[in-house]
């Protein structure tokens, strides 16, 4: 995923269908310089982690 799209998703009020290692995640913050994102899995919101943007994929379906 590129930096611009990750930032759009992170700032949107609409929940996008984004995966990291096959798990649905929420993007909290995008670090433009390091091209990483602070994320958490939707089923484990207490487990935040920083991952490279290239590990994130977006599915066409939007979750509501």
UniProtKB/TrEMBL annotation:
Keywords: Sporulation
Record InterPro entries: SASP_SspH
Transmembrane annotation, as ranges: none
Compartments where located: Spore core
Main location: other
Keyword Nucleus: no
UniProt family annotation: Belongs to the SspH family.
Name of this chain's protein: Small acid-soluble spore protein H (Minor)
Originating organism: Paenibacillus peoriae
């Amino acid at each position: 995923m590129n930096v611009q799209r990750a930032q759009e998703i992170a700032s949107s009020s609409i929940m996008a269908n984004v995966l990291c290692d096959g798990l649905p995640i929420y993007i909290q913050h995008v670090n433009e310089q390091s091209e990483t994102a602070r994320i958490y899995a939707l089923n484990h919101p207490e487990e935040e982690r920083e991952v490279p943007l290239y590990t994130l994929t977006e599915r066409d379906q939007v979750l509501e």
